[in-house]
Specification:
Rossmann fold; alpha+beta; binds adenosine-5'-triphosphate
């Protein structure tokens, strides 16, 4: 098996420059780039890294386009078979980071490693990644199967293998029966499936996706999110997925890297990012949050006591305020669905407004000290809030475990 792999690699090495340059020269769509390993036997285990290895490693990457860096000292590792999402607001550097992995941008500083090898100075076509962009860029004069077969043909893969792999890819993206259609005869969702099939047919170890569902309507986007995740699990390829849609990121990702102003603010599972945001930016960007100004008071029974608007309440885990001097300012983050409404004890205030949202009702509470708190309650039969009226006096509390302390 080892010998076979080595021979395939040597053959591929001798032909790859010529073949790849044809692709990139005639069709400036660099997302067809895929390197040496993609040419080896697709079923060969020796082309697959074990799950605990990193297929992409970024070391202190910096990219400037004049002023402040678009990507600022970013380090990140992507595991084999992992679905990692780069999430952040427009202009935070997601696409620039993705393009540096693909080889479409050259970093000013830092290194890009793919499958353990430094590829920082390699052009896109020598890298074992493919990219799917928001614009499908299908060849309008080729039908579905010819679009999907294009990259394999350029690599002069044997005819039987092309046929087998194209029909596998068509089945995977559920385009059976449409293989002879032209792109103009396909819907947006179907065209995006062709673009995906065209990339996965090359069997890269990593697939880079830049907002691939952004052009689809909401319903189709949600359906494609589920399909894409299922497809990723099935083929076991690492996905690096760029989006600014937090729900999309939470639905699909094994891990999410939240970016802000060229930096990664936090990397973690959806649950970690949502339940334990490390910074105010992450707390505000993912989901809704209440941020209460408070002062640390003391620790009692493994719980941090803080003073909010004159009242001392058990508010957070003891470890989150460890080392703070009494009186230190802290900011307490609590999600609206964690707020409980009581009639006595806790922080007191007045119900100021409400919005009926179907499954839930959102209440705004003005605390006596002036701070505003948002509470979400499920509209189940026994909802406490449903019996409340605007202007009524209430008290709020939450489980200390549910709160996060953000230090200014
Ligand atoms: P979006 O979600 O809007 O696509 P993004 O997070 O992907 O945004 P980037 O496209 O990576 O952000 O851009 C990061 C910053 O770098 C932005 O300020 C952008 O204007 C700038 N930038 C990106 N490419 C270039 C370029 N080729 N020349 C000059 N500035 C650029």
């Amino acid at each position: 098996m080892m010998l076979r792999c080595l021979m395939i690699a040597i053959i591929a090495a001798s032909s790859r420059n010529h073949q790849s340059s044809i692709i990139n020269h005639q069709f400036p769509i660099h997302h067809f780039s895929a390197g040496l390993l993609a040419l080896s036997d697709p079923d060969s285990l020796c082309s697959r890294p074990p799950m605990d290895t990193y297929v992409i490693e970024l070391e202190r990457l910096v990219k400037r386009f004049g002023g402040s860096p678009a990507v600022d000292l970013v380090s990140l590792s992507v595991r084999a078979g992992e679905f990692l999402t780069l999430l952040g607001p427009s202009g935070c550097g997601k696409t620039t980071l993705l393009r540096m992995i693909a080889g479409l941008e050259t970093p000013d500083e830092g290194r890009v490693l793919l499958n353990g090898a430094d590829v920082t100075d390699l052009p896109p076509y020598k890298r074992d990644v493919t990219t799917v962009f928001q614009q499908y860029a299908l060849f309008p004069h080729l039908d579905v199967k010819a679009n999907i077969a294009f990259g394999l043909k350029r690599r002069r893969a044997p005819r039987d293998e092309i046929k087998r792999r194209v029909s596998e890819a068509i089945e995977m993206v559920r385009l059976e029966g449409l293989d002879s259609r032209m792109p103009s005869e396909l819907s947006g969702g179907q065209q995006q499936r062709v673009a995906l099939a065209r990339s996965i047919v090359l069997k890269p170890r990593s697939l880079l996706l830049d907002e691939p569902l952004a052009a689809l309507d909401l319903k189709l986007r949600k359906q494609m999110q589920i399909e894409l995740k299922a497809l990723q699990r099935k083929i076991g390829v690492s996905f690096v997925y760029v989006t600014h849609d937090q729900e999309e990121a939470l639905t699909m990702s094994d891990r999410i890297a939240v970016m802000n102003a060229g930096k990664i603010e936090q990397i973690g599972t959806a649950e970690e990012i949502y339940e334990r945001p490390l910074t105010e930016f992450v707390a505000r960007f993912i989901g809704e949050s209440n941020l209460l100004e408070a002062a640390f008071e003391s620790i009692a029974d493994q719980t941090g006591l803080v003073r909010v608007d004159g009242s001392v309440i058990p508010a957070c885990r003891a470890d989150s305020v460890a080392g703070l001097a009494p009186g230190s300012p802290v900011r307490i983050m609590v999600r609206p669905e964690k707020i409980r409404l009581l009639t006595a004890e806790g922080l007191t205030g007045t119900l100021e407004s409400h919005a009926y949202l179907g499954e839930t009702t959102r209440w705004t509470i003005r605390l006596d000290g002036g701070q505003e708190v948002s509470a979400l309650e499920q509209n189940s039969g026994d909802a406490t809030l449903a019996r409340k009226r605007i202007g009524e006096r209430v008290a709020i509390s939450w489980e200390p475990d549910c709160a996060v302390v953000l230090r200014p």
